[in-house]
Structures are given as C-alpha cells and as structure tokens.
Amino acid sequence: MAEKLWAGRFSKETDSSVNAFNSSIAFDARLAMHDIAGSRAHAAMLASRGMISKEDGLDIDRGLARIADDLTSGKLAFDPQAEDIHMFIEAELTRRIGDAGKRLHTGRSRNDQVALDLRLYLREQCEKISDEIRQFSVVLLELAENHVETWMPGYTHLQRAQPISLAHHLMAYVEMLARDLQRIRQTRERMNVLPLGSGALAATTYPLDRQMVAEALSFDQISMNSLDAVSDRDFAIELAADLSILMMHLSRLAEEIILWASQEVSFIELDDAYSTGSSIMPQKKNPDVAELCRGKTGRVYGDLQTLLTLMKGLPLAYNKDMQEDKEAIFDAVDTVLLCLPAMAGTVRTMTINRENMAKAAAGGFTNATDLADYLVVKGIPFREAHEISGKLVATCISKGIALDDLALADYKKHSPLIEQDIYQTISIETCVRRRDLPGGPAPRQVQRSIELARTRLSSNL
C-alpha cells in the first residue's frame, strides 16, 4: 500500500474500500506530464525566492524530468494503489531524491495543483480539437470546390424547397465549424488563468512569485481570488458546452449522410473503408460511422449535464465532489477526437451522385418560387403570383409532370403574361445562378465564400 502524504493526522489505516472509492489515479494519470510541468515551474520559483535551496531546486527539477522520461518510455508504471497522480509523482520524487522531494509542495495545495493541471491539460486539448476541426473544414472546402455547380434540392421540413448547389449545402457546415473554432478559442482564452498560489482556499503566507510561474507556463494572467481559483470549473463546463454544440453539428451532418446514402435517396455512396456490412444480409452497406457519431453526441451531452449537475450545489471552496469533473470532461474530449477524423474520412471518400441530386432538384417543384418571382416581375402582386404558381403546381401534379414540362398554353390559362421565356427562367440552373447575393447559392457567391473560409482558416481565425 502506497504511503499517504497526509497520514500524520490519522491513527488508523484507511479502509480498503475507501481507498478504492477515493482513488482517482485510474483516470487522472493522463495529467502526469502536466503535473510535472507545473511542479517544475513551481520548484524553480521556490528556489528563485529562496524558499528552497538552489541545490534542492535543481534536484527536484532533474528528478521530475527523469520521472517524465521514465513514464514516457514505460520504465516507470503508475501505481494503482496511489491516491492520485499528484501524490504518485511526489512520492516517486521523494523516493528518488530524498528530503528535497518533500520540499516541492511548499506553498501549494492539491486544490490549486489539480486546478492547474486540469487547465494545462484542457488548454492542450483545445489545440488538438481545433486542429481536427480545421482539417475537417479543409475536407469540406475541397469537396465544395468540386461541386459549385452540382445542383440539388434545398429542404425545409425535410421537403424539397428550392434548388441550391451541393457546395452551398456543404458550406453551411463550414460556417458551423468556424463558430465552433471561435467558441473553443474563446474558452481557451478564459481558461488560460493561473490558479497556482491560491493554496487550499486562502492563498499562502509564503512570498510566492505567481507571475513568474504564469510566464513559465504561458498563462496570460493569474487568478485574483483564491476561493474562486480552486473551486472554479467553469472552464471545463464551458469546453463541454462547446463540444456539445460541435457534436450537434456533426450529428446533423451525420443524419444527412445517412439519408443521402439510403437507396431511397441515393445522393451519395459511402466508401467501403467507411462502411460496414451485415452479419446476416449480404447486400447491406451500413453508414455506421455516421450513425455512431450521431449516437455519441448524446454521450457528450451527458458529460455536460454531469458537470453542470456536479457543480450546481457546491459551497465554496473545494469539495471532493469535484474529483468527478475529470472523467466527464475527459470523455467529452476523447469522444470528439474520435468523431472528427472519422467524419472527415467519411466525407472525403464518399462518391457524389450528381445525376440523382439534379433529378431530385428538378422533380420536386423547387422552381415554384422562381415562377412566382417571374410573375411579380411582370407586374402581378406577390400574393396573387404565389396563388397562380400554386395552381400551376397543382396542374402539374394532376398531369404527373414538372413545371418545366408544362405546355405554354396551360401556363397562359392561368396568366396571359407568361411567355416562352418562362422555361429559361425556371430552369434549375437559372434558379440557382440568379440567387446572386452575398451568402446565396449562386456559384460566384459560393466560390467567394469558399475563398473567405480558406483565408479565415489560414489566418487561424
């Protein structure tokens, strides 16, 4: 059994069931390198301020560096009996360098130590997630560039509404991912505050140089209230909220991929490498990647709810409940880092069925609004034009044809103002090209939005 560094107050050994219940090293071991980085910065500061000798400071730094190397190489394994990663590293350091290791904890508490480690870890994960979002955005942009003139129906209520291009549809997700990047960047900025020096809750009597530690660990500022610094988990909750929104965006795209890949729609075919089969039905090709991403979205939502519920009733300052924060935010991060590359690969490798998309755009009366707009240009009030257009759609339905196939004589029965130019006006290509406003689906505007998105990504905005 590992010796507890806080055992001086107690006359009995902790019950084995309590040890197992209390221990967090099974999941907080991933904080090891961040704990070591924080401890090295703290030790350097202590030595510079004369709170430990320079020799002890050097011994601590070298000892921690060796522990990091041994953990990385596998020479040193985590002790499953250790209470947490912080106690494990300090105990290992003391075992290696003796009394100097016992001086490392001068001027700090596990409360501000774990708050530091979690911020360091999540700050790093923000960068990893942001990189994956950028890579997925590039995949979407490259596909969009190849399909600026691939026509498809745009939908409302899952009913065909107006014609657009596949590129325009994909660029909607690029915009969503841009907001995700922005949210994560802003969360990282708010996260980048040094809590070390707050002690257990009331700072310390030692003359710490908190600014020195902040600079060594690349924090933008130091916390200004010790109670808040050790009990704050807003940064984890905020990141979980950001990741929940990101997963919602991925889930929406996943749902569309699942629909598009169905035989009933057949807008796309998924690559074999990103599909699975059936154990009983040999013909099946299942969109499991998209389905799992859709399902895992609920998991990340659950992680957010866990963190919100965990923190909602806690009095200041630190409470042991807060140990439960790590598994939830770790799971949210891990899940997102699984889903992003899987979805990027699915989109990058899928085959687009241009003909089926164009056929669907032409066959669902998606040009009915353009017919109404044509009548408005001829001088008919919009409400009346809307009614005429609706009646013409009804006529086509009764005849089993599209608006493009309706005879000019039938058009004129509803309005003598309709001329031969109606056919050019309501062609799917014309309908899309004429929507030439910024943000619209016209090829020129979509190409411009692609270029702007590329500039935004290259400038890391």
Give structural notes.
By secondary structure, this protein is mostly helical. The protein folds into three domains: 7-106, Fumarase/aspartase (N-terminal domain) (Fumarase C, Chain B, domain 1, Orthogonal Bundle), CATH 1.10.275.10; 120-209 and 224-359, Fumarase C, Chain A, domain 2 (Up-down Bundle), CATH 1.20.200; 364-458, Orthogonal Bundle (Ribonucleotide Reductase Protein R1, domain 1), CATH 1.10.40.30. The chain is 62% helix and 5% strand. It contains 20 helices and six strands. Strands 1-2 form a two-stranded antiparallel ribbon. It has a two-stranded parallel ribbon with strand order 3-4. α3 (32-48) packs across α7, α8 (166-191) runs parallel beside α20 (443-458) and α11 (234-261) runs parallel beside α13. The longest helix is centred in the N-terminal third of the chain and has 36 residues, at 110-145. It is elongated. It starts with 15 loop residues before the first helix and ends with a helix.
Question: Would you identify the regions where 5 or more consecutive residues have pLDDT less than 50?
Answer: none
Number of domains: 3
- Radius of gyration of CA atoms, rounded to a whole number: 30 Å
Annotation, overall tally of beta strands: 6
Q: Per DSSP, what share of the residues sits in E-state strands of 2 or more residues?
A: under 5%
Classify the secondary structure makeup into a structural class.
Answer: mainly alpha
Count helical runs.
20
> Judging by the overall fold, what is the CATH architecture of the largest domain?
Up-down Bundle
CATH class categorisation of the largest domain: Mainly Alpha
The largest beta-sheet arranges its strands as 1-2
CATH homology-level superfamily of the largest domain: Fumarase/aspartase (Central domain)
**How confident overall, as mean pLDDT?**
94
- How far is the N terminus from the C terminus? 50 Å
